[in-house]
Amino acid sequence: MEDEQVQVDLLKRSGYSEKAIAYFIKRVNVGEIENPSASLAYTRPCGDTMQIQLKANSGRITNAKFQAIGCPGSYAAGSALTETIKRDTLEEAGKITEDEILNHLGDIPPAKIHCVCLAKRTLDKTIEQYKSARDKR
């Protein structure tokens, strides 16, 4: 518990909002979905990687999870994104903007904005993969 408080204090001093810190500490929506409708991993040139898994029913997202190899910003952005798109249609989810993800998160350090870009890009590619697989049926 003491280690967690040290981590929280460091993240606060670094510029993360309370919500972003909570998403990182609690690992909201981090994990895997059994038999996902779509699953895709994307790696940015910097080496950060995110995998998003979606479960969809009749074009509506019923569950969304992610895994990441990256910093607290990647986890906060992935959590914010997956929380935001649950219950959206795939079309609605695809229209989410990086600014909307940032607004949901609150503050994150300016140097970590690329983590939001990673989450959005991974979602876009996951939706493309889902639509491509669906069209082949």
Taken in chain order, the helices and strands follow as: HHEEEHHHH
CATH topology: Sufe protein. Chain: A
* Strands side by side in the biggest sheet: 1-2-3
Q: Flag low-confidence runs.
A: none
CATH class: Alpha Beta
**SS-derived structural category:** alpha+beta
Task: Choose one word for the global shape.
Answer: elongated
Structural commentary:
This protein is of the alpha+beta class and 137 residues long. The protein has a single domain (2-135), classed as Sufe protein. Chain: A. Helix content is 53%, strand content 18%. The protein is built from 6 helices and 3 strands, in the order H-H-E-E-E-H-H-H-H. The protein has a 3-stranded antiparallel sheet, covered by helices on one side. Strand 2 and strand 3 (60-69) form a beta hairpin. Helix 2 (18-26) packs across helix 3, helix 3 (72-85) packs across helix 5 (98-105) and helix 3 crosses helix 6 (113-135). The longest helix has 23 residues, at 113-135. The radius of gyration is 15 Å and the shape is elongated.
